[in-house]
């Protein structure tokens, strides 16, 4: 399979409504992998681009399907309260006022 240029990727990507920025990412990704699928040379880059588009449309790429790691307000409040409790204990043990380490 001849390796497509980024312009060829953008041209074909336009026919399947893949944003030009994604076409560039597709080209960069496969160039970095030597246009191999596993250890075998890629047979059909257009089929690979259609799969890339499906994944893009389904939100597979980026953070679309990644659960948030941000704590809920309740969890943050509980965590802050626990930190303050520990800080008070440390302050008292060190002979400091109880609010010495308060946030």
Structural overview:
With 103 residues, the chain is mainly α. It has two domains: 6-57, no CATH class; 68-103. It is 55% helix and 4% strand. It has helices spanning 6-15, 20-32, 45-57, 73-93; strands at 36-37, 40-41. A two-stranded antiparallel sheet has the order 1-2. It is rod-shaped and about 75 Å long. The mean pLDDT is 88.
Structural class: mainly alpha
- The strand line-up of the biggest sheet is 1-2
Low-confidence stretches: none
Q: Summarize the main sheet.
A: 2 strands, antiparallel
Shape: rod-shaped
Q: How many strand units?
A: 2
How many helical stretches?
Answer: 4
User: Helix and strand string, N-terminal first?
Assistant: HHEEHH
Q: Kindly state the mean pLDDT as a whole number?
A: 88
Q: Please estimate the helix content.
A: 55-70%
Beta-strand content:
under 5%
Structurally, how many domains make up the residues?
2
Radius of gyration: 26 Å
N-to-C span:
62 Å
Descriptors:
single chain; 103 residues; mainly alpha; 2 domains; two-stranded antiparallel ribbon; 2 strands; rod-shaped
């Amino acid at each position: 399979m001849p390796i497509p240029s980024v312009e060829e990727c953008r041209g074909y990507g336009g026919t399947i409504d893949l944003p030009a920025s994604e076409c560039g990412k597709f080209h960069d990704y496969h160039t970095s992998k030597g246009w191999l699928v596993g250890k075998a040379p890629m047979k059909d880059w257009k089929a690979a681009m259609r799969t890339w588009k499906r994944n893009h449309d389904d939100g597979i790429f980026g953070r679309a399907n990644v659960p948030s790691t941000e704590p809920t307000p309740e969890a943050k409040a509980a965590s802050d309260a626990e930190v303050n409790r520990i800080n008070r204990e440390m302050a008292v043990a060190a002979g400091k006022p109880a609010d010495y380490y308060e946030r």
